[in-house]
């Protein structure tokens, strides 16, 4: 039955066999590594992230240990907008980071969502601060998500919010976030 399904699917989309073990190794650029002895499944996007850095000629950035500087502030009345060429570049960079964030990098979720708020009118300060996320992923290329079958915690969630946050001056809106965990790693 599986063989027949693969044959039918292979007629519609490009496929290649991964070997006799039938374990998936890659899905939409997400590397899948399984260690059956340890009971772990690891998802990572190192190759994708390296490609993003190369696309924007950022391979040689000095790495930093956080995606945003502590105390970073943006002002809503800032009108030092970038030109159209740099706006398109900013939008492209944020989009590239969004794919990574949604796949295996929840550690950059807050920063990427913050920079996404300015896609229509990015300023020079936004573009400069965005560089920090790329410096962070340069240092953390090998990070991924590891699921562990020995983690016996049931499905659980965490949530947090600030009240009239301090990152966007003049906004007075709260920012909230959540993560749902299973097998020791995030699933949403």
Radius of gyration: 20 Å
The helix-and-strand class reads: alpha+beta
Q: Tally the helices: what do you get? A: 5
Assess the beta-strand content as a share of residues: 15-25%
- How is the largest sheet built, in terms of strand order? 1-2-3-5
What level of helicity do the residues show?
25-40%
What is the CA–CA distance across the termini?
32 Å
Quote the average pLDDT.
89
Sheet with the most strands?
A: 4 strands, antiparallel
Shape: globular
What's the SSE pattern? HEEEHEHHHEEEEE
Domain count, please report it.
1
Low-confidence stretches: none
Tally of DSSP β-strands: 9
Descriptive overview:
By secondary structure, the protein is an alpha+beta fold. The chain has one domain (2-186). Helix content is 35%, strand content 20%. The protein contains five helices and nine strands; from the N terminus they run H-E-E-E-H-E-H-H-H-E-E-E-E-E. The chain has helices spanning 2-12, 46-55, 84-103, 109-116, 124-139; strands at 26-27, 30-35, 40-44, 74-75, 144-148, 156-161, 168-169, 176-182, 185-186. Strands 1-2-3-5 form a four-stranded antiparallel beta sheet. A three-stranded antiparallel beta sheet has the order 6-8-9, with no helix packed on it. A hairpin with a 2-residue loop joins strand 8 (176-182) and strand 9 (185-186). Helix 3 runs antiparallel to helix 4 (109-116). The longest helix has 20 residues, at 84-103. The relative contact order is 0.16. The model has no long low-confidence stretch (mean pLDDT 89).
């Amino acid at each position: 039955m599986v063989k027949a399904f693969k044959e039918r699917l292979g007629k519609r989309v490009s496929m290649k066999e991964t070997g006799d073990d039938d374990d998936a190794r890659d899905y939409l650029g997400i590397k899948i590594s399984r260690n059956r002895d340890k009971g772990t499944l690891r998802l990572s996007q190192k190759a994708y992230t390296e490609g993003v850095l190369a696309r924007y000629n950022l391979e040689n950035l000095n790495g930093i240990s956080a995606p945003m500087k502590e105390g970073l502030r943006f002002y809503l009345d800032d009108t030092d907008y970038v030109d159209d060429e740099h706006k398109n570049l900013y939008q492209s960079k944020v989009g590239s980071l969004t794919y990574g964030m949604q796949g295996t990098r929840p550690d950059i979720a807050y920063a990427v969502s913050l920079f996404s708020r300015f896609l229509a009118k990015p300023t020079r300060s936004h573009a400069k601060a965005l560089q920090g996320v790329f410096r962070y992923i340069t240092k953390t290329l090998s990070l991924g998500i590891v699921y562990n079958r020995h983690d016996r915690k049931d499905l659980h969630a965490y949530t947090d919010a600030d009240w009239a946050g301090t990152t966007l001056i003049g906004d007075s809106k709260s920012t909230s976030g959540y993560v749902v965990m299973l097998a020791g790693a995030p699933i949403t």
